[in-house]
């Protein structure tokens, strides 16, 4: 049951104050007008007149919702509104009083009335200004423990930030100054704060004012300009937050102050893929997602769910995360009254052929997205047989059953580490790609693999690890300060997978144009600054050396010069290699590793099966 918000209660203190001001000054003006010697003859009329004006003023203020005005927001507009209402009430009262003889001297009272009306109106405004002045004055002392903040953008959005910091006691920002590129604003003041500039001089301004946090408050900022500003702030020991861009606003009054997100940290535009045709492809179909409880798998499930398939099958060996995504979707179905999706959640392993056979035989999926895999490089170096069991045998089982039960399309989630692999995980995923390409040549089912780089925010990725290390006080550990990686966000990765499923005609390995790779050390420094700390001072960054199987630079394509384009300019296809016709025997040979006790023997066998795999030691 939704909680009922209490109605706004008028400011009774102001009602009492207004009554005293209006009644007292009106009566005083009449005393002055008639003189003390004659007041006794006009006392009743004076009291009635003063009471009537007071009542009329309070009623007018209530009708005009003056008492709903928040003192913290009181400004010029509110002042003018109160002044005009007060003057209007005084004028009407004067005009009405003459015919009914409350003022027997008629308009000889006029000049006294003018002075009185102006004074009353002024005091009604001044009482509120005084209260706001007290609040602002006391807030100065409250802000001593607050965060010294610089606002980028001396405009309407910047004013919102300042007003929020001044009126909200829970807001921890103490805005010191603005910075702007507009030469007409630089050197002046805005919202009673200095405006500095240009934006390129932010590092100097931050140092001069001892700034701890920067808020980017330009709603019509382009992504390119946003990334330019973030790049300037990279070397500054400040936390960076921002208001939503116009394209990100959840409504016309969206004034949230949000953290710089993962796309911003990458300093590149987010990759947006049009999934309209994907909706048409999956709507009303039966879709199976393996590894549905993982980072990629669960986001796949979320995005496929939006297409309204007839049956959505969630399969994973790990029950906890699978249950979480199941409950998330069940709640969504209940809240949105969705009745056309049959949600099926199953626990099982892809390397269990019997279990997988039962699933395919019973549900006959139209589309399969195979995300189930072991992906952690160091762990798979120590347990290579398990990597082969899941990444190779599991993929073979799913692919062969997709062929047997007439699946329309199967998409394998692969990795950039499959290119000239130097670790077990990459080698097994390359093996999985060859399985997909083999079945593509021998089946009516259309198979494809999607290869992309590291996924920010996924389980086991560097960002959650770095954040935990920052929370613990450091240090952040990286393998090598020269190590670079291609990055994308989880929604980007999943959009790519779904889009490539649409393009799949048979055996393709799709690759995303991910722009320039990012140095891990730079990403670590950005995350430290995002936390409001200084790299190497508050949080150290320590090299621990490359782990077994790791390499400094990842590759996405074997031959960029000959890559094939697709209808989407961000997606390319790797040139097809000769299909391995010995897949069946290779898979059987790979199964023999389960009887091997030595990790070295397993890796050597894998290297024979995947000739591009080079076994490496822990070297830089």
Notes on the protein architecture:
Residues 1-10 and 246-252 have low confidence and may be disordered. 46% of the residues lie in helices and 14% in strands. It has 3 domains: 12-139, no CATH class; 146-260, Rossmann fold, CATH 3.40.50.720; 276-609, Rossmann fold. It has 20 helices and 22 strands. It has 620 residues and is α/β, with parallel strands linked by helices. The radius of gyration is 35 Å and the shape is elongated. Strands 10-9-8-11-12-13-18-22-21 form a 9-stranded mixed β-sheet, with helices on both faces. A 7-stranded mixed β-sheet has the order 3-4-2-1-5-6-7, with helices on both faces. A two-stranded parallel ribbon has the order 14-17.
Tally of DSSP β-strands = 22
Identify the CATH homologous superfamily of the largest domain: NAD(P)-binding Rossmann-like Domain
Q: What is the radius of gyration computed over CA atoms, rounded to a whole number of angstroms?
A: 35 Å
Number of domains: 3
Shape descriptor = elongated
Q: Main β-sheet: number of strands, strand sense, barrel status?
A: 9 strands, mixed
Structural class: alpha/beta
**Strand order of the main beta sheet, please?**
10-9-8-11-12-13-18-22-21
Low-confidence stretches: 1-10, 246-252
Measured as a percent range, the helix fraction is 40-55%
Strand content: 5-15%
Mean pLDDT rating: 80
CATH class of the largest domain: Alpha Beta
CATH topology of the largest domain: Rossmann fold
């Amino acid at each position: 049951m939704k909680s009922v918000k209490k109605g706004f209660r008028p400011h009774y203190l102001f009602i009492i104050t207004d009554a005293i001001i209006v009644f007292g000054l009106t009566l005083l003006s009449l005393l002055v007008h008639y003189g003390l010697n004659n007041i006794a003859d006009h006392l009743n009329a004076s009291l009635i007149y003063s009471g009537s004006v007071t009542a009329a003023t309070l009623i007018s203020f209530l009708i005009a919702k003056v008492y709903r005005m928040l003192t913290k927001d009181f400004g010029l507009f509110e002042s003018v509104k109160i002044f005009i209402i007060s003057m209007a009430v005084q004028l009407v009262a004067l005009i009405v009083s003459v015919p009914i003889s409350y003022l027997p001297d008629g308009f000889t009272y006029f000049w006294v009335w003018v002075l009185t009306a102006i004074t009353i109106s002024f005091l009604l405004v001044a009482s509120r200004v005084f209260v706001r002045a007290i609040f602002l004055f006391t807030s100065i002392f409250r802000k001593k423990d607050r965060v010294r903040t610089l606002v980028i953008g001396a405009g309407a959005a910047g004013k919102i930030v300042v007003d929020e910091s001044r009126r909200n006691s829970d807001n921890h920002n103490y805005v010191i100054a603005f910075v702007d590129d507009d030469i007409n604003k630089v050197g002046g003041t805005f919202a009673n704060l200095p405006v500095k500039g240009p934006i390129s001089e932010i590092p100097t301004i931050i140092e001069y004012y001892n700034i701890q946090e920067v808020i980017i408050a330009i709603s019509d900022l382009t992504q390119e300009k946003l990334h330019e500003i973030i790049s300037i702030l990279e070397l500054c020991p400040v936390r960076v937050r921002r208001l939503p861009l116009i394209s990100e606003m959840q409504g016309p009054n969206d004034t949230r102050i949000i953290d710089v997100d993962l796309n911003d940290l990458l300093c590149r535009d987010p990759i947006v893929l049009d999934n309209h045709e994907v909706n048409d492809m999956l709507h009303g179909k039966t879709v199976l997602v393996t590894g549905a409880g993982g980072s990629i798998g669960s986001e796949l499930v979320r995005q496929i769910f939006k297409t309204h398939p007839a049956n959505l099958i969630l399969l994973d060996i790990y029950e906890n995360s699978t249950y979480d995504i199941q409950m998330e979707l069940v709640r969504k179905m209940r809240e949105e009254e969705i009745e056309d999706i049959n949600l099926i959640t199953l626990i099982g392993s892809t390397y269990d052929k019997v279990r997988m056979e039962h699933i395919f035989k019973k549900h006959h999926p139209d589309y399969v997205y195979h995300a189930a895999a072991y992906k952690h490089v160091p762990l798979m170096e120590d347990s290579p047989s398990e990597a082969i069991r899941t990444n190779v045998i599991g993929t073979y089982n799913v692919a062969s059953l997709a062929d047997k039960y007439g699946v329309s399309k199967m998409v394998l989630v692969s990795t950039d580490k499959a290119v000239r692999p130097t670790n077990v995980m990459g080698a097994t995923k390359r093996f999985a790609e060859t399985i997909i390409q083999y079945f593509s040549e021998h089946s009516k089912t259309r198979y494809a693999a999607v290869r992309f780089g590291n996924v920010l925010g996924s389980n086991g990725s560097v960002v959650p690890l770095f954040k935990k290390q920052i929370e613990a006080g450091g240090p952040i550990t990286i393998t090598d300060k020269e190590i670079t990686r291609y990055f994308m966000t989880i929604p980007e990765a999943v959009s790519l997978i779904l889009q490539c499923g649409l393009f799949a005609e048979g055996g393709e390995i799709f690759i995303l144009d991910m722009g320039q790779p990012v140095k891990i050390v730079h990403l670590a420094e950005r995350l430290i600054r995002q936390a409001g700390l200084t790299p190497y001072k508050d949080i150290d960054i320590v090299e621990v050396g490359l782990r077994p199987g790791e390499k400094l630079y990842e590759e996405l394509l074997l031959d960029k010069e000959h890559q094939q384009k697709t209808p989407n300019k961000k997606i390319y296809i790797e040139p097809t290699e000769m299909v391995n016709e010995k897949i069946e025997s290779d898979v059987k040979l790979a199964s023999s590793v389960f009887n091997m006790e030595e990790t070295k023997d397993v890796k050597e066998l894998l290297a024979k099966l995947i000739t591009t795999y080079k076994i490496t030691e822990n070297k830089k």
